[in-house]
């Protein structure tokens, strides 16, 4: 099966539908035609053991009503095609569940927005195998870096993500990774002069929250901690040449508690510092250089195994953590962060805070 599938819903209505595989069980669906609206509800009930929903218009416009009708017809056509697929016949013969529908949600229309570089004056790049994050980046003109082994799920290689970001931010000292060509299964060279802003997204921790996998979430966060150490070492090697100066910002885009198993819209911790202060707080270059750059897999979800100790950032219990700027919060969690000097703020203020810290024009 090709990565992009095409379906003509109705010739007389001139509606064209395109499917493109994303990650895991997800795909992107594009509906093209006249008089369409993004203002409709989805068919996904969002919880197991519930009936498939009908798409409904969210306003009284003819476009919304028409689009809802198209999506409902599309949903039926998808089910008809899937049920007739030979793979489903094989699964049914083996006593397995069949894939009999596609849950359609998050309908929207692509809008024109100012590029990230024009808004903030920084050339941006990102590593984001999760397609919805990559799509947001592409909408803002952010280059999506190639990172072999980065999958956007439990199998992802965090070291590959860290390496891709470090190379992009240290070009031309290092060769910049290739970037994805939107809508194609191809790559093109990244910016020869590199990038000023790198965004590294990790999905597996959110998946652990949805799966209520508490042990894996803890072990997964420890793995992320190791990947941050690897990223810091790679960036420090570039900064030590005197040609670069880096800053680290660590946060989450939303909360997914394991007890709830879904997004809870609670505040998330936010940390921002210079790489120089980060290295000093760790104990200096000798500690940082001891961090292994070998790739490591995420711990097994079932076993909840530990991360390889060679990759860990070791804490020297004889030395009290030193503080170089900001506040006295010494732990990265929701409770400790509540005492931070930044207080609570909406995500819309984040770039302003980052640029103020970097002494860039707002």
Automatic annotation (TrEMBL):
Pathway: Carbohydrate degradation
Alphabetic keyword roster: Glycolysis
Stretches assigned to the Metalloenzyme domain: 194-274
GO MF terms, alphabetically ordered: metal ion binding; phosphoglycerate mutase activity
Annotated signal sequence range: none
Catalytic activities: (2R)-2-phosphoglycerate = (2R)-3-phosphoglycerate
UniProt-listed GO biological process terms: glycolytic process
Family: Belongs to the BPG-independent phosphoglycerate mutase family. A-PGAM subfamily.
Function: Catalyzes the interconversion of 2-phosphoglycerate and 3-phosphoglycerate.
Protein name: Metalloenzyme domain-containing protein
Organism ancestry: Eukaryota, Viridiplantae, Streptophyta, Embryophyta, Tracheophyta
């Amino acid at each position: 099966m090709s990565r992009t599938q095409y379906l003509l819903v109705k010739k007389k209505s001139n509606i064209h539908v395109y499917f493109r595989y994303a990650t895991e069980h997800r795909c992107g669906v594009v509906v093209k035609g006249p008089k369409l609206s993004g203002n409709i509800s989805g068919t996904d009930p969002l919880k197991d053991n519930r009936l498939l929903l009908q798409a409904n218009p969210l306003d009284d416009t003819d476009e919304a009503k028409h689009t809802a009708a198209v999506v409902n017809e599309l949903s039926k056509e998808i089910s008809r095609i899937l049920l007739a697929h030979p793979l489903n016949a094989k699964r049914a013969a083996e006593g397995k569940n069949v894939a009999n529908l596609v849950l359609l949600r998050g309908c929207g229309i692509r809008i024109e927005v100012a590029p990230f570089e024009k808004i903030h004056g920084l050339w941006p790049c990102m590593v984001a195998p999760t397609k919805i994050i990559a799509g947001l980046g592409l909408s803002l003109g952010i280059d999506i870096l190639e990172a072999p082994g980065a999958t956007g799920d439990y199998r992802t290689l965090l070291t590959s993500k860290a390496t891709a970001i470090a190379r992009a931010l240290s070009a031309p000292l290092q060769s910049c990774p290739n970037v994805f060509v939107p809508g194609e299964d191809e790559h093109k060279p990244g910016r020869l002069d590199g990038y000023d802003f790198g965004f590294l997204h990790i999905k597996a921790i959110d998946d652990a929250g949805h799966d209520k996998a508490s042990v894996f979430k803890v072990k997964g966060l420890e793995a992320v901690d190791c990947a941050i150490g690897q990223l810091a070492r790679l960036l420090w090697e570039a900064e030590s040449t005197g040609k670069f100066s880096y800053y680290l910002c660590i946060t989450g885009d939303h909360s997914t508690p394991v007890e709830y198993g879904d997004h809870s819209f609670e505040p998330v911790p936010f940390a921002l510092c210079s790489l120089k202060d980060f290295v000093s707080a760790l104990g200096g270059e000798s500690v940082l250089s001891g961090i292994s750059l070998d790739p490591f897999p995420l711990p097994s979800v079932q076993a909840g195994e530990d991360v390889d100790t060679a990759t860990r950032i070791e804490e020297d219990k004889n030395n009290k953590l030193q503080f170089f700027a900001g506040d006295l919060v010494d732990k990265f969690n929701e409770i400790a962060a509540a005492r931070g000097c930044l207080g609570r703020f909406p995500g819309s203020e984040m770039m302003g805070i980052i640029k103020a810290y970097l002494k860039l024009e707002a």
